[in-house]
Amino acid sequence: MTSERPAVHPGWLPPEAFAALGARRALVCGAGLLVQTVRDELAAAAARYGGKVTAGAAAAGPAGPAGAAGAGAPELVLALAGAGPLPGPAAAVLAGHDPAADALGDEGFLLARRAGVTVVLADRPAGLLYGLFHLVRLGPAAFGPDRALERHRPVLRHRMLDHWDNVAVHPVMGQVERGYAGGSIFWRDGGPRRDFERVRAYGRLLAACGVNAVAVNNVNVHATEARLLTDRLGDVADLADRLRPYGIRVHLSVSFAAPVMLGGLPTADPCDEAVRDWWAAATRRVYERIPDFGGYVVKADSEGQPGPFRYGRSHADGANVLAEALAPHGGVVHWRAFVYNHRQDWRDRSTDRARAAFDHFAPLDGRFRDNVILQVKHGPIDFQPREPVSPVIAAMPGTRLAVELQATQEYTGQQRHVCYLGPWWSEILRFAPWGPGGSTVADVAAGTAYEGRPALPGTVGGGGGGLVAVSNAGDDPFWTGHPLAQANLYAFGRLAWDPGLDPLAVLDEWIDLTFTPSTTRDPRLVRRILHEVLDDSWRTYERYTAPLGVGFMVRPGHHYGPDVDGYEYTPWGTYHFADRDGVGVDRTRATGTRFTGQYPPPWSHTYESVQTCPDELLLFFHHVPYRHVLRSGVTVIQHIYDSHFAGVEQVVAMRDRWRRLARLIDARLHARVSQRLDEQLRCAQEWRDQVNAYFYRKSGVPDAHGRRIP
Ligand code: GCW
């Protein structure tokens, strides 16, 4: 019997995406691994589409000609600015750029089209690679009329995916914690998966959307995974070798208790000399093996993971000992701020999980070493489909902060539901924590939020912590389980490169690259329907699940599907406090947990008052009667009914629209999405009926429109 593995979907890099490039005479000037990647990509495209790739002077040798020799002058030049004599059009483009005023940095590039030649110039090889993928996005438009000089540079330096992948299959969480896309690309059954072609293809997809760092194992570090730092380091090096040609640095989640678990020391106290030495030595060995290693990711004192609290030390002490070990090698520690009491007594109304990260970390501002990046979940609780922005993001001017998003759809339909997260992420990144018109969350992640203000003592200079997402990819043939969830992975990279991009324009890019004319019979219809299905899908998901920002009405454990009281009497700190009169969490300063006081003005005032609190967050901040009238003019209870009926109707419409694509796109992909839409509809109906029935029974208030509530 032969078992055939299904072909892996090319994602946003089908061969046709390179058609315009592959048909040209291209010249690539420069040397180095990533320049070679550019050349190889172009050569593969040229072999398919009839073009030609020539190596420029620097690759041929310092004395070589400017590469224009041979059959016809190049129509496309990709060159490192310092790669020796450049052909005329490229030299002219370079002359028009003032590097002193406008540096390209490690990853930036210039793009222009002059006299029928398209030119990409970069100072560093990674810039050339990103320039190449920019041309892929442009397609034929890269070879149209002349283009004025454009300068492209990532807004965020660190654009990272965290894989919650386990090496050994975890008895409860499986191979990938909160993974909805099959197994891990990296690990299987206790060891490396060794499908290096797949790893390379993954790196290529990530580079094409702008990601430059990957943490290869779960932040919950169990016994087997801990050893990736020491005797299993070779497995990490193998992954680094495959990701390096695409400009991706590998990071490792490590256990804070590693000196005890792996080093046999009696303690992991960060202030203990032997512990510091152990980290320094272990880290030195990592860099001997992986010279461009990115650094460590640490979840400490969180949900059972070990941490500095055990030794009476602060999280700054804890993070700094690892940072000190990494500093000589240029590595960083991503230290997670997701620290809270998960063994809370639900009867205790004084403890509020939303406050925890701020309470723990804000007082430590200015005490972290320069190469510590404090990694903060975007909301104060835990990746719910709607939360306010975490107040920690505005509270630490003296610390490098990274904002953490969740691409894996733990709380947004687990890749069985269509839920395009681009609009949500964009809203978060554009949010202005100090009020409209001021610096944004993206500015904090970029390290530019405090520019122009006098530096505080001990503050770090330049370079924010960037953006991190928990990856949604796995060994599934479509990479992401739900084929349309690929759009989330793509959008994450693009928004990390430039948080100002319009998420619907990003969606256009993904559609145009993925559903190329040769794979669709009617590209315009395909694009329209994909927009109709995806554009509003996050808000649709929000409508049929937990209402008005209250969150966590999910089934405990696996977190799929509704269970309104599932977490209500548990130790996890995620409550909605519904009773016969009303619902919501009072987090005000006046009468509640005082969480609103963690925000700077104007938000501390906006959220404090029921009059000004945005409707979509009302129940996050306030406990209100069911007949409380929202700013939209309807009562809370009527809003719950209306939004839940509307959400399900929207899923019905999505499914109808999707049916119109049958026979217009790849049959396997169409069938996979159809099947998932059936499940989405079933699940959305269950959400609607449970939530509506629950609140009808609690409140006794009937639906104003007399619809059926079971
Ligand atoms: O949302 C929760 C998840 C856990 C996860 C944790 C975290 C990796 O349910 O599975 O653990 O967040 O972010 O650390």
Notes on the structure:
This protein has 710 residues and is α/β, with parallel strands linked by helices. Helix content is 34%, strand content 12%. It has 3 domains: 15-152, Chitobiase/beta-hexosaminidase domain 2-like (Chitobiase, domain 2, 2-Layer Sandwich), CATH 3.30.379; 159-514, Glycosidases (TIM Barrel); 541-585 and 623-699, Alpha-d-glucuronidase, C-terminal Domain. The strands form 5 sheets. The protein has an 8-stranded parallel beta barrel. Strands 2-1-3-5-4-6 form a 6-stranded mixed beta sheet, with helices on both faces. α18 (537-544) crosses α21. It is globular and about 80 Å long. The structure holds 4-O-methyl-beta-D-glucopyranuronic acid (GCW). Residues 164, 177-178, 219-220, 299, 338, 382-383, 410 line the site of 4-O-methyl-beta-D-glucopyranuronic acid. This is Alpha-glucuronidase. Residues 480-707 form the Glycosyl hydrolase family 67 C-terminal domain.
Instruction: Estimate the global geometry from the Cα principal axes.
Output: globular
Query: How many structural domains?
Result: 3
Bound molecules: 4-O-methyl-beta-D-glucopyranuronic acid
Q: List the total number of helices.
A: 22
Distance between the termini: 51 Å
The poorly predicted ranges are 58-70, 456-462
Strand order of the largest sheet: 7-12-13-14-15-16-17-18
- What's the rounded overall pLDDT mean? 95
Strands, count: 20
